[in-house]
Amino acid sequence: MADKALAGRFRGRGNPLQWWHGVVLGLVVAWLPGPATVVFIYWLPLLLLYVLEPKNEGYRATAALFFVIAAMTHPVRRIWDASGDWDTCTDVLLDPRNLIMDWGAVALAWLVSELTVIGLRLYRAQAQAAAIRRLQDRARVLKEEWGFEPIAPLPEEKTS
Amino acid sequence: MSGTDNLSGQHNDASAELRINGRFQVLRETSLPPIGGAAAFVATDPLAPGMGYAALAPDDVSARLEQYEAFRHPALMPVLAHDRLEGAPWILTLRPSGPSLASLSGPWRESQIVNSVIRPVASILMQAQQLGLTLRNLRPDNLYPGVIAQEVLVGPLGITPPAFLQPLVFESLSSAVCSPAARGYGSIVDDVFSLGVVILTLCLGKAPLEGLSDEDILRRRFELGTPQAYLRDQPVPAGLVSLLQAMLSDDPSQRPAPVDLVNMETSKLFSVRREKFTRQALPVGPYMVRSRRALAWAATRRPEEFVDLLRCRQVDAWLKKDLHESALSEDIAAAGIELVRTGGVDTDGGALRRIVHTLDADAPLYGGGQWFWPEALPTMLALEAAGRNPAASKGSCMAIATQVLASETDYVSWAGLLGSQLRQLGQEARRTGQKGAARIRRLIYDGNIWQRCLSPLCLSRRLVVASEALKALDASMAGRDVPAATAVRSGLIDEQMRAFLESHAVRMGFHPRSALTTGEMPLWLQDFALLAWLQHRSADSPPLPGLAAVTFPLLNGELKIWQARSERERRATELRKASEGGILHEMLDLVVNTIALRQDRIAGQTAQHEFEAIESQLLHQKTFMPNVDADTRRLAAFVTMSSGIGLSIVSCVYEMLH
């Protein structure tokens, strides 16, 4: 059932991989083997994120792409300055700081998205608790003024 | 009269001077002998110091006082003015120039009687007849020597219930059988009869049948007929015999009209058709009955014996054979058969009453063991309530009134005075809009604006003004503690006070039903509403702190019908303030306010709904962490994406600058 729905989603979107993607990729690898390798290596965590993340939160991979772009500006400039020769690409690839930056950028993207969600949920829980408190206050005022029968005690607040 | 000793209490606080109509000063220290049965005091007019006025303090004023006040005649002591001073009625009249005729000894001469008594009094009677009034106060102690041409002066009218003080001998049989209170206004022929007895008294120098008890007098009069009983073997001037025989006739239609008496001359002859008396007497118990009238009377005195005679067919046989009344005999026989068929007789029952009415159509109504005119019922009730009707056992008048009003449909068809009086009484009772005993009590006050309040609180003060009664009530309440249970059961005021105040309030436009809120108000609150209304509407409404203090806890308890607590507390505070001020209607408005109460109810319902809504909302409220929904995701995507774009732009810019 879930597979079907998943397949449906892909069908609806249209298969993102077309035959000319393969041709372009092959040409790029043939023409610029260094930068292609760099991009491939650098985009690996993105791929990992895309594969691992829940399918309904596709924005994370996209957002992480911008973080990776931000992390890649310096190595890309070095490769650009060296006209994309293989040695520079290898240097860039073998520089652990760049890799750490790359993985860190993806991690940061993931962290930002997670923190946003958590922050928003906390804020909402707070607002809801405040609303409940307001209602309880109102109910108490009404009860004091009009003297109804006591209301059922509320369950203790829990935070997940 | 009892008014004299009642007033002694007032002498203590007599510092305030009394002025009738603000002009005639009443000197309460100088009392006169009672005039017409009412306590009398000297009154002076500062504008005309020489005139001799008398101020009367009557206990019971007739409902027709205004009519009597407008009735002037040279031979009648006029009601010059009336006023309500300190809440009690005062009547101004002329001071008589000498003692009443009762104290004049010696028989009068015939011409003296004709000129001084018959002509002037007949002239009064004629004028009264034209006005539709009756005097009912012709007796020697109410006749005074006049100033003009030696004519007598008749005492002022309207200062007692009709014929209340008339001794039995001075009353015609149709009124003599009743107790004094039950005599009613009667008709002008009753006055003619009284005048006849006055004449006879003046001729004889003493009242006829003097020394006999009332019962013996009645018996003699019924057995012999009044003219015979009064005139037999008496030294009456020959010229007056036929006149007296006519005037004292037991048949009202045989008495001369006032117009015949106005031109009275000595030795004028009057012819009278003698009443039928049988040779053979019918013994009913100890009574030897010789006439229809006597039979009716004896039947009420000895109902058991009478019914026995009726069963043995002796009554109708006697009526037919001795009295030659065959039609009547058949009626009575039929009634007797009916009576026997229904089984036995109850002396209060309508059967006996109907037989008596058939026998004597001129007689008053018989019921509850006594004779009475229906129009006198309010007076009877009043005197019973005041404890001044010793003839009747306690509560009997109430029982009679209940019976008469309940079986009113029986009488609607009755002809004559009796029927019309009964119909009018029934109408008055219906007009009160009350039920049961309250209705009967209201009759006392509704028919007579001058009826003093009969509540034990102010009986002796002769109060006829509602605001004064309120003051008396307040004074009696001050410092007293009315237990809530008592107030709830029997109200705040006694029944007489309630009837008195209600009657006055209704006259001023109070509608007990419409003034009340929805639903049934407790009795004490109805009372309070009445008192508050009266206090509010009386021109000189004094604060009533005593009443306010007594009712404050009760009213405070009544505030619990208000749902809103703040409203309740506000009202309680204001109620306390109003009760300290003694303003009852403000207190009432705080407690009984239909519109505000309805608003309170509506607000209460709204609050209840809101409360229930909140309650259900709270029950269904999820108190744990909210789920990650599309909104959250959108916001997270936006934040992450924009921060990523921003970061990459910053990174690009940084890279370009270095």
The 3D shape of chain B can be described as elongated
Q: Output the structural class of chain A.
A: mainly alpha
| E-strand count of chain A | 0
Taken from the alpha-carbon principal axes, the silhouette of chain A is elongated
Largest interface: A-B, 49 and 39 residues
Cα-to-Cα separation, first versus last residue of chain B: 133 Å
Summarize the helix and strand pattern of chain A as letters. HHHHHH
Query: What integer value in Å does the Rg of chain A equal?
Result: 26 Å
- Oligomer type: heterodimer
Q: Which percent band covers the strand fraction of chain B? A: 5-15%
Helix count, DSSP H or I runs of 4 or more residues of chain B: 28
Biggest sheet architecture of chain A: none
Supply the number of structural domains of chain A: 1
Low-confidence stretches of chain B: 1-14
Average of per-residue pLDDT values of chain B = 85
N-end to C-end Cα span of chain A: 30 Å
Number of strands of chain B: 12
Please write out the topology.
The complex is a heterodimer of chains A (160) and B (658).
Chain A lengths: L1 H12 L5 H13 L1 H20 L6 H23 L4 H9 L1 H51 L14
Helix pairs in contact in A: 2-3, 3-4, 3-5, 3-6, 4-6
Chain B lengths: L1 H10 L6 E3 L3 E12 L2 E7 L8 E5 L7 H6 L10 E5 L2 E7 L15 H22 L11 E3 L6 E3 L18 H4 L11 H17 L9 H11 L1 H6 L6 H10 L10 H5 L19 E3 L2 E3 L2 H10 L1 H9 L2 H8 L4 H17 L7 H10 L5 E3 L2 E3 L4 H9 L10 H11 L9 H16 L4 H11 L19 H12 L6 H7 L4 H13 L4 H4 L7 H15 L7 H14 L6 H17 L2 H8 L2 H27 L9 H28 L1
Antiparallel strand pairs in B: 1-2, 2-3, 3-4, 4-6, 5-6, 7-8, 9-10, 11-12
Helix pairs in contact in B: 3-5, 10-11, 10-14, 12-13, 13-14, 15-18, 17-18, 18-21, 19-24, 21-23, 23-26, 24-25, 24-26, 25-26
